[in-house]
């Protein structure tokens, strides 16, 4: 006899009512909504992002006004205390030099931390994660931007791509 996926039917209505009493009755939408606190429809980080955007735009406009308007125009607006105009060029130049230094420092640190070809760190054993890319038909070397899957690259493939 084939079993039904439905629960077993009870012999009497009294047993069915007793079984149904074990489970809570479904709540109405109004009752279930009253139990929970309302959730904000817009996440608060969107408000913070908008405020940061508006403040940065206002600061940029103030910077442009300070950098380009002559002293007489600023004094006519009642602005008498402001930094020297030297800083209008010096600060952006320093920021640009700092970003360039960080990029070059990152490249230099990566080159310094790369082991030489004769290092024991380049030895491959059975724990290495080598995907079958040893012959790769030149895809990773010939195609600009060819990116192999994540894993250890065999030194032979690296030498082939770099030196041929």
Please trace the helix and strand order, writing H or E for each element.
Answer: HHHHHHH
Instruction: Look at the helices and sheets and give the structural class.
Output: mainly alpha
The share of residues in helices is 40-55%
- What is the residue-mean pLDDT, rounded to a whole number? 77
Query: How many strands, what sense, and barrel or not for the largest sheet?
Result: none
**Counting H and I runs of at least 4 residues, what is the number of helices?**
7
Query: Cα distance, first to last residue?
Result: 73 Å
What oligomeric state best describes the polypeptide chains here?
Answer: single chain
The backbone outline, from C-alpha atoms, is flat
Report strand %.
under 5%
Show unreliable segments.
none
Q: What is the number of E strands? A: 0
Q: In angstroms, what is the radius of gyration?
A: 35 Å
InterPro entries: GPI_Anchor_Biosynth (IPR052263), PIG-P (IPR013717)
Transmembrane segments: 47-66, 86-108
Domain PIG-P: 45-163
Membrane topology: Multi-pass membrane protein
Features:
mainly alpha; 7 helices; 164 residues; 0% strand
Protein model, in words:
The protein is an all-alpha fold and 164 residues long. The protein has a domain at 10-82. Helices cover 54% and strands 0% of the residues. The longest helix has 28 residues, at 86-113. The radius of gyration is 35 Å and the shape is flat. It is found in: Membrane. It is a multi-pass membrane protein. Residues 45-163 form the PIG-P domain.
Give a brief rundown of this model.
With 164 residues, this protein is mainly α. It has helices at 13-21, 29-35, 44-68, 71-76, 86-113, 139-142, 155-163. It contains 7 helices and no strands.
């Amino acid at each position: 006899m084939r079993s039904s996926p439905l629960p077993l039917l009870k012999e009497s209505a009294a047993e069915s009512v007793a079984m149904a009493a074990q489970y809570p009755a479904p709540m109405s939408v109004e009752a279930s909504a009253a139990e929970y606190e309302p959730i904000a429809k817009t996440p608060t980080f969107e408000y913070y992002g908008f405020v940061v955007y508006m403040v940065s735009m206002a600061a940029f406009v103030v910077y442009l006004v300070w950098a380009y308007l002559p002293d007489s125009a600023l004094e006519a607006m009642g602005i008498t205390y402001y930094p020297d105009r030297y800083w209008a060029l010096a600060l952006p130049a320093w920021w640009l030099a700092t970003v360039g230094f960080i990029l070059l420092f990152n490249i230099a640190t990566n080159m310094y931390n790369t082991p030489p070809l004769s290092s024991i760190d380049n030895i491959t054993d059975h724990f290495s994660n080598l995907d079958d890319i040893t012959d790769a038909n030149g895809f990773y070397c010939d195609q600009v931007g060819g990116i192999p899957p994540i894993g250890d690259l065999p030194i032979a493939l690296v030498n082939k791509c770099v030196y041929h």
